[in-house]
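Convert to structure. Protein one:
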Amino acid sequence: MDNGSYNYTIGAVPNTSSNTFATSVQSYGFTIVLPDGVTANITSSLGNTASATFFDGNAVGQSAIDGYLITETLGSPVSLAAPSAGTTSNIVTIQLNETPTSGTIYILENNSALATTVTALKSFMQADMEDDGMATYSNRVDANASGISGTSSYDFSTLLVETNELAEILIYPNPVKDIINITNTNGNLVKAEIYNLNGQVLLTKESNLTTININKLPSGMYILKLYADTASKTIKILKK
């Protein structure tokens, strides 16, 4: 999920199911690919010991990229939300140290040419997913398939469109108690959405986009995403 300001959250998305058994995770790993020269800080949401091992794209024959192999072995297994909850469980948050305007950030797919060549970069998750009274941890990510679902990449070139077309939009107040005001001198907005930090859409509005009433939402941090015909803009909103 794009949180704005070059900050991204990666989560575990459950398959749609009525299953109420919460998956228990013992360890996980995956690779994030970035444009050449871009670095990042990684924060774990499941534990406090996520390891981010940097690799230079030149070392794997791809000079246009760099990346991080992110792994974590949890001191005690951590439970994710059960599939029946339909909730994305945050795994890590990535904050870029640079502000790239081209290239892409993406999660490496297990069936990609790079992962097939450098198998250490493949995703895995050692987890117990069976409600059978036993704690049995095994890899639940197919090493020969993509292993990815949902939005798994972000193209930095879209930021140029956002900056030019939506630069004059003002959002206030922030923090906000009830009403978000939107000043849009170009009048080109077509939709607004409010997300929670798990990536769930809580509110959508497609008309009268000068105000958004969020008084029914509990206090906390949210993501406001504004859409024009050919661009979008993402802003963090703090609800008091």
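Protein two, convert as well:
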Amino acid sequence: MKRSSFLRLSLAIGSLFSFSLKNVYAGTKNKYDRGKGFKVDAGKDRFNKSISPFDGDIFYTKVSTADTDGGMYVFESTRIKEGGPILHTHYDTDEWWYVLQGEFLIKVGDQTYNAKAGDFVFGPRMVPHTFAKVGQGEAKVIIAHQPAGKMEEYFKKISEGVAKNMSEAERDNMRKEHGFEKVGPPLTYLKQ
């Protein structure tokens, strides 16, 4: 191949590659301006549309999966009822909890932590974990999934009642489709 032909071919391939990367990136951008930050007020949702996936629980999105192109999902959970989710494990996401108000028991692997306002607990991916609100009154916890995986999508579907009439096997499949699975019952604790 002549040098001039090689250079033209190289430039053409480079231009095509650059064009393709721009289009791929443009397809993953969310509708929010990447050049700006944002503020979400206390007790408010990022989109002014809180969800209630579980009875006695309200989720306020603080950082949406779309805000970070899947990098993380952060929400505040305001809980009235005692208890919490099943023991489960995420395939590809780490999860953490920062207690704002009230008291929680948070189990990660074989360790159970008593977490109160100001306490932080980390749960690495593939390690079984769960938590439970304990005590009377309202409790609040910031929960994050990093990377986000499909947890925000899962909570929205649950809030919309998608799983309401599902069998346990169908619920298990739905969990797996969203990147996690049930590995045991909810955390039990003794009331004082």
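Residues 8 and 192 are 78 Å apart (CA to CA). Confidence is low (pLDDT under 50) at residues 9-29.
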